Structure formats: structure tokens, C-alpha cells
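User: quick one, fold this
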Amino acid sequence: MITAVIVEDEKPSMEYLSSLLTKNHSNIQVLASASNVDDAVAMIESNNPDIVFLDIQLQDGSGFEVLDSLKQEMSFEIIFTTGFLDYKERAMDYFAFYYLNKPVQEHELKKVLNMYVVKRTSFDVQKYMAFKNQIKAKNQIVSIIVKDQYVAISLKDIVFCEASGSYTFIHTIQGDQHLTSGNLKRIEDLIEDEAFYRVHRSKLVNMKHISSISKDGMIYLSNGTEILTSVRSKKKVLEMYQLYLETKN
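Assistant:
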């Protein structure tokens, strides 16, 4: 039997999730539920569940505060629930967290729980810290996986990102070349900053680091790199760079 605790501040959402588990997942036993940070911490510590369904946004705080307040080692797994469908979802997908968008759909719940049963992993604290930093410092840093470690890089230091198959090189003004898992599109979604623009199929450039652009579409970057835009993209790149300069003046 898999044991679970539900942390959800909206009673109808909590009751609905509990009913779905009772109806479709007889192998999961809900031990307790909580609607605020203090009760959630107490429930988790006293019940030692296998899974915690955790709402990110609570009325008196956040799911992050719940996890940060736990005194014991986190041997359970988290399934985040959230009503935010954009940035948090992309970040959770990048960090490979289990998550459910609210209102919870039966087929999505089944899929997530099937994945959990196959993997039966415990909560990864290092991954969680990187994810939390990514959410809280949106548009300031990007947390990426480099050689099985999570590295936080200031967006202002990124000159450009370069696709390398299913990986991406992140080039910084300090001269570092961080190779991270995840294709360029995933990194682009994670960064989500107006200063970054795809100037080529394989190049994502931080326009803050563009020194100049020639009429033939050659981009000169602050670290000395030169990138030739594709013929198809040249006009659009010039327009976007000009627009960027105008909005910053």
C-alpha cells in the first residue's frame, strides 16, 4: 500500500483529489490532509507518507515553505499541484518533477501515479533547491544541470546558447561553456526573457551582449563571437534588435 498526504488550501479541490484516489487507485491510502503550512509540516512529519500531493500556492504561504520547514529527511516523493499553467509548468517539466495542473484530470493523475510506481524514487533535495531558485529568481537566473550537478547562472552573464543535438552549450561572458542536458527549445522556454532571441535555428542570443549587427546579418557579440544569421532570419533579427534598443532607451 502506498500512503499519501494531501496539502491543499481549497477544500473542494482537496475533496475532489481524494475522491479520485479512492475511486481509481485502491493501492493508495490517504492518511491525512492539511490546508496551511504549519499543519502540513506536522502531518508530513507524523505520518511519514510515500507521496505528498503539494499545492504550490497556499493561503498562508507556499509549498516551498512547507518543504523548507521539515526537520526530517525527505524520504517521500512530491507531486506538485498548481493552477499556474505557464512558467511553473515549464520549469517543473525541465526539472522532471511530478506535477498536476488544477483542476486535476483523471487521466493525468493516472499517468503521474503510474510513473511514480515504476520509479518509486525519493525526493531529490538538490533538484528541489534548483527548481525553487529558478521560480523565485525568474528572469534573473537559470538553473541548469551540468555534469549531474545543478548550476545557477545569471541571465545577464549569458552571451548566447548553442544547440548541440539534444544538449545545449551556454556561453557566458566569463568564458565558460556549460554543457547541459535539454535541447535549445527547452532552455529557451526556461529562460523566458525578452532579451533572448533565436537568431538562428541553433543559436539563442542575449541581445544585451550584441555589440553590433552588420547589414549582411553578421552579429558581433561582447565576448568576441561572431554569428551569421540565416538568410531567412536576417531581416527579422535586425527588426527585433532595433525594437529591443528602442524599448531600452
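User: anything notable?
Assistant: The longest strand covers residues 28-34.
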